[in-house]
Each structure stands twice: as C-alpha cells, then as structure tokens.
Write a structure and sequence with these properties.
Chain lengths: 306, 296
C-alpha cells in the first residue's frame, strides 16, 4: 500500500515535471562525472594503484597507505603546519573583516566610505600568481619589506627563505587580499539591522559602545557564524595553491601542509595511492571539522548552516 | 537623525578622527603594492636594480620592459588562450548553473531536495586532487584545453546564489504564464531568464574572475607551451627570469637588469584588464555577495 502510493507520487511527479528533470540532467551528469567519479576513485587509497590497471584492476592493500602516512616522519609536521596555518587563517580571516566592517559602518561620509571600500576590495581580484610575485618582490632583501627587516635585524636574504617568516607572510598577505572582500558581506549584514533598535537604545540612554555590544555585534553574529562554518570546510586546504607558489624545500619545516604534500607525492612523484590516501585523510578530517563546528553552532547559538 | 560633527562629544570626535585616519591608512596599504609595481615598471632598469625599498615615483624613466613584454609571443598567446578558455568555460558553466538553479528553485519537485543535497554535499566532501587527475587523464584530456575549460566550469556556491534569486520571483508570475498557455521552457527562457539577468551577470562575473585568475589546473594539466594560459605564462616568465638573473654574469649585466624590470611589467600587463574593468563590475559583485550572504 505504502509502496504503491509512493510509486504513484513518483509517476505523477514525472509526468508533471519531466521538462525540469531534462534540464537538470546535464547538471547532475556534470556532478557525477567530475565530482562523484573521483569520489569513487578514492578507492585507490586502499590499493597499490597503477594507472595501467585502473581502480578496478589494481591490488587491494587495505589501510597500508594510511599506516605508512601515520608512521611517516612527516606526519606530525604536516598536521602541525596545517593546523597552525588554518587556525591563524580562521582567526585573522574572520576577525579582521569584522573589524574593517565595523569601522566602515561608523563612517558618515558616503564618498569616503565608498573610496575606502573600493580600495580595500581591489586586492581580491588579483590572481594568486600575481600575489605570489608581489610577495616575492616585497620580501626580497631589496624590496620594501625585506629591506626594512634587513636594516633592522640584519636579515640579508629573502624573508621567504626563513622558516619563521612563512606563517606571518601567509597571514598578512591573506589579510591584504581577502579582508576588503569579506568585509562587504558583513556590511550587508550590518545594513540589515533594524534602525529602530538603535533609536530605542538611544532613548534608553545607551551610548555608542553599548549599542555596539548589544545591537550591532548580535546583529551580525549569525553571518559571522555562517562564514566561520563555511571557512572550516576549506580549513584543511589552507590555500595550498598559494603555498605551492611560495614555498621551497628549505622552509618545509613550517610551510609544508597536507595538501602540498599530496600534490608533491601524487603529481610530482607519481605515488598516486599514497597521495590519494593522504588526501582522503585530509578530506575526512575536514568533513569532521565542518560537522563539528556546525554542531557546536547549533548547540550554543541558534545559527547553523544545515 | 545624524548628529553634526561639531555637536558630538569630545570622545566621539576623537574616535571619528582616529577612525578616518586608520581607514585611510588601511586604504593606502591595500593600494601601495600596485603603486610600487607600476612605478617600478616604468623605471630605468639600472636605477631600478640599484634601488632598495618602496618606489613611489619612477626611478628614471624607461619603457624598455613593456617593449620586451609586448614583443613576447608567449604573453600574447597566453592572453588569447585565457580569453578562449574563459569564454568557453563561463558559457558552459553559466548555462548549467541557470538550468540547475532554476529547476531546484521549483517547489513540489519530488527529487528536488535529494538533487540539491547531491550537489551541495560536494562542497564539504569530494575526491580531491589525485582521483580527479586520474579521471582527467583517463578521459584523455591531459594537455588539451578541455581539461581547463570543463572540469571547474560550475560551482555549487554560485548555483545556490542563483537558486536563491529564482526563489524570490513570485510564483503567481509562472501561474499566469501557464494559464496563457506557455510551457515550462517558454516560461524559463522568456520570463525567468530575462528577470534574473542581473543575478546571471553576477554569477557569470564570478566565473570569469575565477577562470581568468586560475593557474593550478593549467599547471597540472597542460604541457605544450602553445596551450598555456596567461597566468601560467607569467609564472614561467618569473621563474625563467630568476634563472637568467642567476646565470647572467657581468658581461650581460644589461640582460639581467632588464629581466628584473620585465617582472614588474608582466605583473602590470596581467592585472591592467582587471583594474580597468573593476570599477564597472564592482557594483554587481557587491549585490551578488549580498544575495549569497542571505542564504550563506
């Protein structure tokens, strides 16, 4: 009975919405081919994969690739670097745009506000290759930043050759590129706050500071949380495309992260199975972090992503 | 409602002034790398080589760097390839995104929610670099433009943005068109797409920027130099220059200082289209982000 009712529903739906499903077909096909087939291809992480034999023909080795990775000399270094870079990115990447948006929100002059917004937004449009070249130019010993460090601390090489310099360079350049862009999202959220709340607060005698704490911040908190959760999804990838352009073996100690390791092992050393296993480990950990932060957000605030 | 500045309290006045100063400094910091590169790119190569620190005004004047860049076949070919790949990828991605977003914005679709989950799930979990690379090589797309054009042509995030927009179009519009005898495709092409023009423009622009700026796909999939994108060419030139600078001895000092100058010119040449287009497209971007921010 239940089954036939459901089948009837499906049949009616098909008759009525056929056209829609035909339109959806190429989209689903795209996702099947380019996202779900590679997901199935992750099976190679449990194999001794050879491209000639394919995923179905290669020898199954269970968790051997994972065990090799967990026991590897690089394991803890990669975990540490990935977590530190992503924690720094999360902290500065979420807080500095909020700060910029709050400061811009206090500006009354529209032209001034627009000018600053435009200026801080521009770096977002610059490609990673150019950003990486700008970084190299700036931290070279004769470059503006490198020159400062060379005269102050006697560091005579490019700052990119010092392991200690890598994290600050990543954080500062990410802030330069992304702050203005993300601030726009917060400004949109700020403009959505009901003005009557401020009126009421003013009548109650609340100063600017009180208004900020009790109206503005709670007003944009849901946006902050949603962006935070979204960001945790990207967390373990920590901008590896940029790292690949900037790092060098001399600073792997702080610069090498899981994703760059996957790239080197897989595409430069052709160790496909091992690289896929490390990549799968990274993806599962990333998924866990999204679910965890979503759960925490649901539990302690009313906001959640799904 | 706004209090005039002179009537504000003293702490408030101090805050307003400091805020304006701080924001101005941040604005300058955002722009200063561009000024530095622009000024360096029109400097005299020998004076540039001797310079240390920030360049806010050209050191001497020379256009030899730009001359070399414009003479370079690689740069022009890179430009052309990037334009072709971007056009193809954006056209395909936009059409797929419109179809997907429109269908998934319809209520009462039995498979609607399941299909939406199928698509958004890939945002938080996917096969990653290696299996995707194996897939592309299995398809025989290594060293072909297809590898750069098709695999990343659409994003679930943009589909959500556009779906959110389609959902805001009142249902009554569709119902009345339906009563007038229009079928589903006519409603989509004659009513919905024209109504969603601005949101389609936003999504298309997101795709243009992403494709124009990307280098990673091109780097891992393309081998032949005549297929390289602009970003890849720039990366190659910057690397090649480092090599020539290192190998150039005293005899070819000129070659090495010009090579250094060319770096700045290459950067300028690659970002100028973006900087010129930016004021015109910024408005769309802000509105697009706002639509996206509503739904996350």
């Amino acid at each position: 009975m239940q089954g036939t009712k459901r089948e009837g529903k499906i049949r009616v739906d098909w008759r009525r919405n056929r056209t829609y499903y035909f339109l959806l077909l190429p989209v689903l096909l795209y996702y099947v081919v380019f996202l779900y087939i590679p997901m199935g291809g992750l099976a190679m992480a449990f194999e001794h994969f050879s491209p000639a034999k394919g995923v179905f023909g290669s020898a199954f080795v269970g968790f051997a690739n994972f065990v090799t990775f967990f026991k590897s000399y690089y394991f803890w270094r990669l975990i540490r670097n990935t977590l530190i870079l992503s924690a720094l990115g999360l902290m500065f990447g979420v807080l500095s745009p909020v700060g910029l948006a709050l400061l811009l929100n206090e500006v009354k002059g529209r032209l001034f506000k627009k000018t600053i917004q435009t200026a801080t937004y521009i770096p977002y449009f610059i490609s990673l290759v150019v950003v990486a070249s700008l970084i190299k130019i700036f931290v070279a010993p004769e470059g503006p930043v490198g020159n400062l460090f060379s005269s102050l601390f006697g560091l005579d090489n490019s700052l990119l050759t010092y392991a200690n310099g890598f994290r600050p360079i990543m954080v500062v350049s990410d802030m330069w590129q992304m702050t203005g862009y993300i601030a726009v999202i917060y400004l949109a959220a700020l403009s959505g706050i009901d003005h009557e709340q401020y009126e009421a607060a003013r009548i109650d005698g609340a100063g600017h500071w009180k208004q900020l704490l009790h109206i503005t911040i709670p007003g944009i908190a849901p946006t902050i949380i949603v962006l935070f959760i979204l960001r945790t999804g990207q967390l373990l990838n920590v901008g590896y495309e940029k790292i690949i352009l900037l790092y060098s073996p001399g600073i792997y100690e702080t610069a090498d992260v899981i994703s760059t390791f996957v790239y080197r092992k897989g595409l430069l050393e052709f160790n496909y199975s091992y690289a896929a296993a490390v990549g799968l480990f990274n993806a599962v950990a990333g998924l866990a972090m999204v679910l965890l932060s979503n759960w925490l957000a649901k539990r302690y605030t009313d906001t959640r992503l799904f | 409602m706004d209090t005039p500045f002179r009537k504000e309290s003293l702490p408030r006045k101090t805050f307003i002034v400091f805020n304006a100063l701080l924001l101005s400094v941040l604005g300058v910091i955002a722009l200063i790398p561009f000024v530095h590169v622009l000024m360096a790119s029109i400097s005299d190569p020998f004076k540039l080589a001797a310079n240390t620190g920030l360049i806010l005004w050209p050191k001497g004047f020379s256009l030899v760097g730009y001359q070399k860049v414009f003479e370079s076949v690689e740069i022009w070919r890179g430009y052309l390839n990037t334009i072709l790949y971007t056009a193809g990828s954006v056209a395909l991605g936009s059409v797929l995104t419109i179809f997907g977003a429109y269908v998934l914005s319809r209520r009462n679709l039995y498979w609607g929610n399941k299909a939406m989950f199928f698509i958004t799930f890939t945002m938080i979990f996917n096969g990653g670099l290696i299996p995707t690379y194996i897939l592309i090589s299995r398809l025989g797309w290594i060293d072909t433009p297809l590898a750069v054009i098709i695999p990343n042509c659409m994003s679930a995030f943009n589909l959500i943005i556009m779906r959110t927009y389609f959902q805001t179009i009142p249902e009554s519009l569709e119902e009345s068109a339906n009563l007038d005898g229009a079928n589903k495709l006519q409603i989509l092409f004659r009513i919905m797409i024209p109504l969603a023009k601005s949101s389609i423009a936003v999504v298309a622009l997101f795709y243009v920027i992403a494709q124009w700026n990307s280098y990673f796909q091109a780097m891992i999939y393309l081998r032949s130099a005549n297929l390289f994108t602009l970003q890849l060419v720039i990366q190659q030139i910057l690397l090649k220059n480092q090599a020539t600078t290192a190998s150039a001895s005293g005899s070819s000092a000129y070659v090495s200082v010009v090579a250094e100058l060319i770096k700045y010119c290459v950067i300028m040449v690659s970002i100028i289209p973006m900087l010129v287009a930016y004021p015109f497209i910024q408005r769309y971007f802000v509105s697009g982000i706002m639509v996206g921010a509503v739904k996350g």
